[in-house]
Amino acid sequence: xxxxxxxxxxxxxxxxxxxxxxxxxxxxxxxxxxxxxxxxxxxxxxxxxxxxxxxxxxxxxxxxxxxxxxxxxxxxxxxxxxxxxxxxxxxxxxxxxxxxxxxxxxxxxxxxxxxxxxxxxxxxxxxxxxxxxxxxxxxxxxxxxxxxxxxxxxxxxxxxxxxxxxxxxxxxxxxxxxxxxxxxxxx
Length: 187
Hints:
Rossmann fold, four-stranded parallel sheet, 4 strands, globular
């Protein structure tokens, strides 16, 4: 009698809309960290190309529909900068409504991705830059070799599992995302 091969459980698919290459590199870094613990999820980091929040949510909805044929997503989120919020209130409201309708969690980086990255650095958890320019300057003081966009391998030089846990304690959206991907609490 032939021996049956063990079945490999299907990974849970997670849709992660990324404003730009920097966010996609960060999601790749998260994927690598999670894969050291388990192989329960597949993180599908989808480049949205920036713009205002409504444009990114619309692009995410289109990209989601294109990809859903490969299997359903158990969680959908979009990582986007808050620096464009408030420039067009009606478009912001439409973005919120569309995100809710399509089932997307909006994870806001305040004011931008560089400020979000600072939350991961031991010396960066205190500073709260108010503008993108201030965030860029502050991050470069803490991380002089930082360049945008930084590939996941270079991000990993400064951001590891303890750094993500440090940022999670401060950033509610990141906390929800990490819960959904079963990031875990232990170092």
